[in-house]
Amino acid sequence: MIVTEEQFPESEFLWKQILADIRSKLNRQRFETWFRRVTLLGLDESKLRIGVPNVFLRNWLQDYYLETLKESVEQVLSQALLIEIEVIDAPETESSTNGSSSDTSVHGESRSAAPAPSASPGPGTSPSPSPSSSPTLPLTVERGRQPDFHLNDQYKFENFVVGPGNRLAHAAALAVSESPATVYNPLFMHGSVGLGKTHLLQAICHTLLERNPNTRILYLSCEEFINHFISAVENGDLDAFRNRYRHGDIILVDDIHFLANKERTQEEFFHTFNTLYNAKKQIVLSSDSPPKEIPSLQDRLVSRFKWGMVAEIEPPDYETRMAIIKKKAKARGRDLPDDVAQFLAENFSQNIREIEGAVLKTVGYASLNGSPITLSLAREAMKDVIAPSANAVTFDAILQMVAEDHDLKISDLLARRRTKQIAFARQLAMYLARKLTGHSYEEIGGYIGGRDHTTVLYAYEKVQKLLETDDNVRVVVDRFVNRLRNGSS
């Protein structure tokens, strides 16, 4: 590692990347609670030193988040470091920092076992772990004050890369932010983890607050709603709970699928939903699943979640992934060469968080080694993330097998001739090369006659579609794959 404590600006850059990786692993509230006041003290070739303002926070990080810290450090720096957590403010007495969180249930509904208080502590205060203290209810913007919750400055509409898979959700979220409770109410967005649901929720909050800082916003996770409700029941504060949740201008709940199998909480949310909807207040929900696929969700909630707009967010296509990668790198002050962006886009396809993590790791690896960002450097940075091919299939073996099977010469596949027989054989060779060698589209195109990467991408997708509809093509491809992997001729 080249970075030393004397190179502090470079260390700060890497520390920000480590924090970004941690943020991607935790929900918003936990990150704000436990990492907002952590500062970098030093970073050298063997050790990361961080500072916290009190003993309680140090102990909590060591007990519950040390593994998370280690994983993120290794993700960004590509090596493990010793982590030291130091108290840099007035120390607290041990008696004031000891405490434990206990699980509580309301008719079988368990509070989340993960340690996380429900609101970020204010400056100069330490979070209380006492199970008898009620969480702040809820995360909200009161008129005339700044929000208690944290919004990621990058999660704005202008930073959201729009593609075919997310265009509807983006348009609906933008419409809601411009005219709450008049167009899509409720707005229900669903899709797999890491596709941008939280980004759109926060973008709505940013836009509303920019237009009217007095907007009363309730923005929280479903997990927090459940924990708040349980605490209100325990402490006899249901009236206060309902008063706070039912008098906002807009409520945004992330991961609403956590209502699954929580009958008592579903009942409470049903009445909260009705009150807000009848008062013409905007409701925005996100989920990993569409309403009808959330297990044990009451029919009346399924029906209400479908009253407005249900928008699915699908994994980004190749072009969208390229745009995301370029944008994420530029946001960190680096321009990625096209071949590097293509390499990352081809190997990370399902999860935007994984894509961002790949960009972070590539940029961090280059900064760490003081090297320019090249394809070989990206391969080196990603070697522990992208599994190497378990076989020794080569371009030559693929071309030879495909050519012989179609009664052609290898030179026919490399030439520019476009007869139907040659064109399909060439596309088949490109598909097999992509599937079996792990080389990028650009590298495959360069080897097979110097073709553009888009030609290889088109060939791959065409054969992939044929595999779904044509049994003859499926038999041929399976035969090739088995022979190439087994090394038979």
Structure, briefly:
The radius of gyration is 26 Å and the shape is globular.
Please describe what this structure looks like.
The protein is an alpha/beta fold. It is 51% helix and 9% strand. It has 20 helices and ten strands. The chain has helices at residues 8-25, 28-35, 55-77, 94-97, 167-178, 197-211, 222-235, 238-245, 263-278, 299-305, 318-331, 338-347, 352-369, 375-381, 395-405, 410-414, 420-437, 441-447, 453-469, 471-486; strands at 39-43, 47-52, 82-87, 105-106, 109-110, 187-190, 217-221, 250-254, 282-287, 309-312. The strands form three sheets. A five-stranded parallel β-sheet has the order 7-8-9-6-10, with helices on both faces. Helix 11 (318-331) packs across helix 12, helix 11 crosses helix 13 and helix 19 packs across helix 20 (471-486). The longest helix has 23 residues, at 55-77. Residues 1-8, 90-105 and 110-147 have low confidence and may be disordered.
List keywords for this structure.
5-stranded parallel sheet; 3-stranded mixed sheet; alpha/beta; 489 residues; 20 helices; disordered N terminus
